[in-house]
Amino acid sequence: MTDRRYDRLVTPALIWIQVTFGAFHVFGKYVVSNMDPMAVAGLRVLGATPLLLLLAWKVDRIIPQGREWLSLALLGFLGVFANQLLFINGLKFTTATNVGILMPSIPVFTCAIAALFRVERIRPAQMLGVALAVIGALVMLNPFRFTLGNDTTFGNLLIVGNCLAYAGYLVLQRPVLRRLPPLTVVAYAFLFGGLGVLAVSGRHVLAIEPARMPALVWVGIAYSVIFQTTINYALTVWVMKRSTPSVVSSFNSLQPLVAAILAAIFLGETFGWREAAGFVLIVGGLLFVTRQREAAPAAPAASIR
User: Fold this and answer.
1) Nearest residue to 224 via CA among 24, 4, 5
2) Selection from 120, 237, 228 nearest residue 169 by Cα
3) CB of 167 within 8 A of CB of 113?
4) What is the pTM of this model?
5) HSE (CB half, 13 Å, CA atoms) of 94?
């Protein structure tokens, strides 16, 4: 199968990533309400890092050299250490509604960082597609439900930090992918970031009392390790090599749509006019962004060495 034929799998892969990420939001709050968020983060990297390293060695058989370690350490800090710790703690200290409303900021942050570092040339028409997708997500989520107060401010700030860290991770991995294979990039980023996560979460992991945890919590942890972390991080870096940060991040707007569909199926909630309008805007925006990318020239290569 040629690279061009692989490119046809980019959109299905992006949809899969957001569907499985969005599904975790449905029961993620339950997991962190029964287990210390720091312990959850530690278990994620303990499970996913060896799997990614093994997969990278089986496929690529490459060990990074020289200054590549610095690039991978930066990616590990942004995409693993900061991203995961900020998200899992933010989920505990704010509401699930606030998390959903703040997450569509990722495409906006990504486009700004990509333009700042000249990793991608953001055209006005492309920005319009991103805006449509973000507006569609906010229509579905109803931003007027966003709550401010002493009990949610800290969590809200953590989620905003999470969005910034993940946007930076998406953008700055692009130049590294011009030099290293995708699985090697994500595996060694996890090695660096995972060591940082374990340094601050190790005692929380050791404090877990497995027998006292509900079975559903362990199902959530297994789901997070296999799908949300190992598979999705590997797929994201594979897609990034064949796409751009703005396209990859714009698909984050699918998460509220996924949550709405799952809530309608499993919780009996209705899929009304707001959800329908959001669906049209999100799909229209993503189609616009994708087509603009196909017609756009590549930006000059940047370096984070």
Assistant:
1) 24
2) 237
3) yes
4) 0.81
5) 28
